[in-house]
Design brief:
Elements lengths: L1 H16 L6 H24 L9 E8 L4 E7 L3 H20 L7 H23 L3 H22 L4 H29 L10 H7 L7 H17 L9 H7 L2 H26 L1 H6 L1 H20 L4 H22 L7 H36 L15 H15 L5 H13 L4 H26 L7 H5 L3 H7 L8 H19 L2 H18 L2
Antiparallel strand pairs: 1-2
Helix pairs in contact: 1-2, 1-4, 2-3, 2-4, 3-4, 3-10, 3-14, 3-20, 4-5, 5-6, 5-10, 6-8, 6-9, 7-10, 8-10, 9-13, 10-13, 10-14, 10-21, 12-13, 12-17, 13-14, 13-16, 13-17, 14-15, 14-16, 14-20, 14-21, 15-17, 15-20, 16-20
Length: 517
């Protein structure tokens, strides 16, 4: 089942590559059907995860046995929810793409679909991989594929933004690979060279190696921090999001950024427990700075896509704060487990909500060729569906109770408080700043005055064009379905969080136990 989950998009991509490009509708429909099947498959994988912890399904086959590399997949309380979130985000991207052709050339539409199918395969593979080399292969392929998404279908300075994204994240992944090598080679005295993650976690391969453990953690941490991204390694993120196509931004923020934070709980914490405890304060400081920096800079943004991009730094800064706090043994296992559980819920919530926000920003660009906040006002009248969904997504992002953002942020802050109370209180200020920036955007864009002066009626601004549009500028059916799917999942998590936390908590407790060694 696990192999089929990541391999199925590749099979469909191979079939669609032989379909005539002129059959654009058939290609898009096949993408939606595959994406829906992936969601069903991810739910089946999730239901197989034992509620007491451990892996519900595993595939382990030797791949390069001479070097200790294996094809090892598994789904547990960390990976199953993130795989499900990944498939939902890709389904939303497929539905959203139904409402617009990707360029005039049907061949470009087919190429776009094929690229996203392969991208979904490697993203699912990252979260299922239980071998460091296999994880690295999927991790690196996601970088290459996203480069082509931005460079090929983006806007503005898309080539420059794509290259900046690629150089930052690819170089970071190479540094991370060095850390993997230190882990594998350093543990050869305890049973031979292996890249198997559960085996390395059981061995604690660099225990007592001092400098080697710190160097491995630094190398792995830098690669993961760039992908997250953590301040000050975040500078590639705003231009990449601003210039990427809407579906690309949704996948980049919703899925690819989680590969960094997931790497902390899957690799850095359980495989390097001693160095992680020693470096916990560094993670906490970087997390708090990311929270405050991201929210304050977002407050100054005039473009909606850049605003949402900077809030991603804030939301994932909370995750880094929580996993850092989980390294403080004195805080107690209950609080540390709550911090890791909240961090994982925050990953899922951010993936759903931020993907919805980027799709909605893409609607504005489609209607008026700009996502500048000042260019839009009074949208509640002509675009009620857009207004309601945008308001709901904004409230979920700022952590309103009843939505997924509140569950993640409340849990991780409560779990982090016993370890670092001052840092946690400082990070909580980011919630107020995030609320302020989203409420200001809502007031400006949805509730502004739609009665424009005569000069504006003659201008080519989006507001004037919107008012003269003969057809409804509101969300189309496919767009409503895409955004509605993401927000419905956020609402379900907010109302019934146990559906998610009951799966995550046992895995979080196991990681906390490993870090305590």
């Amino acid at each position: 089942m696990l192999t089929a989950l990541w391999l199925a998009p590749l099979v469909v991509a191979a079939v669609l590559a032989a379909v005539p490009a002129a059959r654009r509708e058939a290609v898009l429909a096949a993408w939606v059907v595959l994406a829906l099947a992936e969601v069903v498959g991810s739910v089946l994988v999730w239901t197989a995860v034992p509620r007491g912890g451990g892996f519900g399904d595993e595939v382990a086959v030797p791949w390069i046995p001479a070097f200790g590399v294996g094809y090892h997949l598994g789904a547990d309380g960390f990976s199953a929810p993130l795989v499900a979130m990944t498939t939902v985000v890709f389904l939303a991207a497929a539905l959203y793409s139904l409402s617009r052709p990707v360029g005039e050339d049907p061949a470009r539409t087919r190429a776009f679909v094929l690229l996203f199918l392969v991208l979904e395969a490697v993203c699912v593979g990252v979260f299922l991989a239980l071998d460091l080399v296999l994880f690295f292969v999927f991790f690196d392929l996601s970088i290459v594929l996203m480069y082509f998404v931005i460079a090929g279908w983006g806007t503005g300075s898309r080539e420059r933004s794509a290259l900046q994204f690629f150089l930052y994240t690819f170089l970071g992944s190479l540094v991370m690979l060095l850390g993997f090598l230190v882990l594998a080679v350093g543990g050869r005295d305890t049973g031979g060279i292996t890249f198997d993650i559960p085996t390395l976690a059981a061995r604690d391969p660099l225990a007592g190696h001092g400098v080697a453990g710190i160097l491995a953690l630094v190398a792995i941490g830098v690669g993961l921090a760039i992908k997250t991204p953590v301040w000050p390694l975040h500078t590639w993120l705003p231009p990449a999001h601003t210039d990427a196509p809407a579906a690309g931004s949704a996948v980049l923020a919703g899925v690819l950024l989680k590969m960094g934070t997931y790497g902390f709980v899957r690799i850095a914490m359980p495989l390097l427990p001693g160095p992680w405890r020693a470096a916990a304060i560094v993670a906490v400081v970087l997390g708090v700075v990311s929270v405050l920096w991201g929210s304050l800079v977002a407050l100054a943004q005039r473009d909606l896509k850049r605003l949402v991009a900077y809030t991603s730094i804030t939301h994932l800064g909370y995750v880094v704060l929580a996993v850092g706090a989980a390294g403080v043994v004195a805080a107690g296992p209950a609080a540390r487990t709550l911090a890791v559980t909240g961090a994982t819920v925050q990953m899922v919530s951010h993936g759903l909500v931020t993907a919805a926000l980027f799709l909605l920003a893409g609607v504005l660009r489609d209607r008026g060729h700009t996502s500048e906040i000042a260019a839009w006002t009074g949208l509640a009248g002509p675009m009620p569906r857009f207004s309601w969904t945008f308001a709901l997504a904004a409230f979920a992002s700022l952590g309103l109770p009843g939505l997924s953002g509140f569950i993640g942020e409340f849990s991780l802050l409560a779990g982090s408080l016993p370890a670092y109370p001052v840092a946690t209180v400082l990070a909580a200020l980011g919630l107020a700043i995030t609320a302020a920036l989203f409420l200001r955007a809502l007031q400006s864009m949805l509730l502004g005055d739609r009665h424009l002066p005569p000069a504006a009626e003659r201008s080519p601004t989006p507001r004037a064009r919107l008012g003269r549009s003969p057809s409804s500028p509101d969300l189309r059916v496919a767009e409503t379905a895409a955004v509605g799917l993401l927000l419905a999942c956020s609402l379900v998590i907010g109302v019934a969080p146990a559906l998610l936390t009951s799966t995550i908590a046992p895995a979080a407790a196991q990681v906390v136990s490993l870090v305590s060694r």
